[in-house]
Amino acid sequence: MLLPNLVPNRLEAGCDEVGRGCLSGPVTAAAVILPADYANEWINDSKKLTKGNRERLTEEIKTNALAWAIGSATVEEIDEINILNASFLAMNRAIDALKVKPEFLLIDGNRFNPVYDIPYECIIKGDGKYASIAAASILAKTYRDELMANLAIEYPAYGWERNVGYPTKIHRLGIKEFGASPHHRKSFRLLPE
């Protein structure tokens, strides 16, 4: 069972992002404030859950959270400011969109560049330690996966409905055969040397 909060009864927002290692699509983050007494044994790092479990938990999280929000940084922003800064931008956008202002932020990872005056702590592998970060990882992943599946309808050559933009063999074959789409990150090496 993941820990509910770092400090009991403090409004803590867990924040995580997905899509940093992708060749296409936005980088997407979510921020989630869970009630202090909330517990759900199924909530875990989104990478350890099946697609069906993530989708069921998404509804559960949205229903029970005190607040939740999604933020993204576009392919153009990724190319302009680099993927790390775009990840921070997506996280800050998610935090800004929360309907309840958190008193503290739990950030998954080892670095963060805040734009708001909210104290925070970076937690390596936080999505496997704190329920609010795990919840954020689930919301960000289900949102981004659905977005990529929808883009795959218009751009079927890359297999995004399955690889969601990660550099798989099918994705790279699509780039080789059809070139890059408008949703590819031009600052990334799309094909091996």
TrEMBL record:
It is an enzyme of class 3 (hydrolase). GO terms for cellular component: cytoplasm; ribonuclease H2 complex. Manganese or magnesium. Binds 1 divalent metal ion per monomer in the absence of substrate. May bind a second metal ion after substrate binding. Its EC number is 3.1.26.4. GO terms for molecular function: manganese ion binding; RNA binding; RNA-DNA hybrid ribonuclease activity. The keyword Acetylation does not apply. This is Ribonuclease HII. The lineage of its organism: Bacteria, Pseudomonadati, Bacteroidota, Cytophagia, Cytophagales. The gene is rnhB.
